[in-house]
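Q: Fold this one first, please.
A: Sequence and structure below.
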Amino acid sequence: MFDLDRWDEIFETIRKNKLRTFLTGLSVASGIFILVILLGIGEGMRNGIAREFEQDASNLIFVFPGVTSKEHNGLNPGRRIQLKNEDYDQILRLYGEKLDKASSVYQNWGQVLNYGKESGSYDLRGTFPAYQELENISLTSGRFIDFNDLSNSEKTMVIGNRLKLDLFKEEDAIGKIVQVSGVNFKVVGVYTDPGGEREETRAVIPITTAQKAFGGGNNINRLYLTLKPEDNFDAAVAASSQFSEELEQFLKMRHTIAPDDDSAIRINNYLENAKRFFTLMDMIRLFFWGVGICTIIAGVVGVSNIMLIIVKERTREIGIRKALGAQPISIIGMILHESIFVTAIAGFLGLIFSLALLEFVGPLIETQYIYNPTVNFTVAINTVVILVLAGALAGFFPAWRAARIRPINALRDE
């Protein structure tokens, strides 16, 4: 039931102690403000990490050779491992049922591309059609290389948007001829990459053409593989980790590499990396919750101390109330009501200011590992619950002390 007299008492107390009430509320508001901002930053870090992994296929397994660091079967360390087409073909035969997408890559760095009067040095990659999905690139015009290009070793080329702007400016690149080391390539597509301009300064051609035109023979530089989807993230990580181990053992055996040589064959498993990063993000988020809760507790302690002072100041009033028949529950309710009111109002103000800051400033924050820091509705509701509990906790002990005051002692208080 709404008690007008009770509210009059609360507002009268606040009017008499404006500065004290303001400072008390500020401690609570700052606690909620800090908690929400920290949680928003935590979510922004999670978004940033997720965006980094979105640059390529999320379950990508990336294989590239290195140099042996240990002697094995009479072979000295320091051998540079060279992957071959036969390695890729054998992997497809052995693990084809597990694989979803696959592509080998023959790469030529620093190739000079010429169109008309424009020229520049760019990364040229010979690949399979699946490379488009493995690198998570999108076509803005034209098409990607296809199996007809591969089988006929066609001189077709797909270029990144940055490369297109460098060579063609505003001119349509589709159908135009680009010369690379005296070899003419027809541009059949232009793409964008979520990785940004660095990824868009590349040209993609059929791997069969790249190996023939640039003296690659049957050499390849790296492998891109993805596995078929699993039911959940943990199952996908487990399957990916097991496959990576099997693949590493297979390649080490095929190229006579010591089993414990970690530098000869390097495998970058995106799912394993993602799990490590997301586990770290969960720990950071838990830490942020801890810091925020501790800040709120500090504010609650301040509210509780203020309520104890209020109880002390109103000892004679409480004694008179009890002498006139006021029940202990009425005294407790009076103190709790004021405590919850001050805490809730201050907390809501801190919540509103923090959400407004994230709403307006958050979209402007776009660093490598922090993107769009936000707090969802569930978290906002949780902070409201924390507010109510904090207000009740802050007022409970002073209220309990007030309820236990004996009228005769209260009336003697000076």
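Q: Good. Now the second chain.
A: Here it is, same layout.
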Amino acid sequence: MLELDDIQSGVLRPRPAPYAATYVLFRIDDPRAGREVIGRLSTVVASAAHPTSPAADTWVSAALTYRGLEALGVPQSSLDGFSWEFRQGMAARAKALGDTGESSPEHWERPLGTGDVHLVLVTISPDQEHLEGALDRARETYEGVDGIQAIWRQDCHSLRSGKEPFGYRDSIGYPPIEGSGIPGTNSHERPFKAGEFVLGYPDETGGLPPMPGPEVLGRNGTYVAFRKLHQRVADFRRYLKENAGSAEDEELLAAKMMGRWRSGAPLAACPLHDDPELGADPRRNNDFDFADDPTGYQTPPGSHIRRTNPRDASVGGVVRLHRMLRRGTAYGPELPEGVLEDDGVDRGLMFAFVGAHLGRQFEFVQSEWINGGEFLSLGEAKDPITGYPDGGGSFSIPARPIPRRLNGLPRFVVTRGGEYAFLPGLRAMRWLADLRT
């Protein structure tokens, strides 16, 4: 059984809808100050013990980077037990993740990727009022403590449309996890072993994921990848308009690139026309597979949702070993409807991956499925939404009698920075607070 009272609520809890969120990053200059704040935070961070209670929709999560664990004075023998991707950090993994050109670390928003980010606090709530209350409780843990400094903040929120900046309904799918008490959103998907997402439990291979010692430090923790992704909304809209013959065709192209209509309705269920009622129904909008569409006449094999979660498709690699918990929170104002020129305002998503295997989950999906096409016999074709084609990308839409092909795909998403972090269990937070150096 999952020890829910020791697991941070943010590990297993789906993001509320609507939502407000804030990310705050800290640098730890004094180990004793850092340990004091971690101890205080252990009383503020909510556990996953009551995942369906109304109060569980508001939570504070606390995560530490590798440099942050070093700054707290964690023994080297414990540090060596963390995954090597985590120890290297996201900036060092940039090439493998496709963060090149404009997305490369030298262009990232500081302090992201610099080594100065030690502690990541994330606060999520259904509304601004409850968010401010949670932020106040978190603020009390570090204000007035010398030796720890807040160095960056990003506020996020639901857009008025209820969608992400490109106009799609977001955060629809959620996998079922044994022992979590939270149902999945696809009845065709059997529950995953808890060890795919939480350390200390068997995973889909039948073994235990590698875990740092002592056990109190690693057990009930997990890894998280935070990424700030700038979205070029005007470019996306312009590209659709330039390659479509009508407003209806624009929406069809947008649906084919994503694998869903912008309402959230999946092409697998309604390939010829949108169904907003279906798109808004959480009981039905993710309840499908691809077995009856091997060629992709309904959902193109290269579409975003088919790449990031091939479901029952027969592809290279075992699909269940690469399943991810994914959360997205929008930042910046909406670009007004119909505007086709960029207004110079920063907008996009704060993306978060949660899982026990940074390498075979987040990095595999990013490098092999999003930035590559060999697993679907698509050659070097990349994800049409979040891939990085730099103006030379293409996207094929299977159709009878002649497939449709989009060429000259520009870069719609630019990485503005990111960090790998570790979300410790609550007992681990108290263990970290009691460290002596």
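Q: Anything worth noting on the second one?
A: The mean pLDDT is 93.
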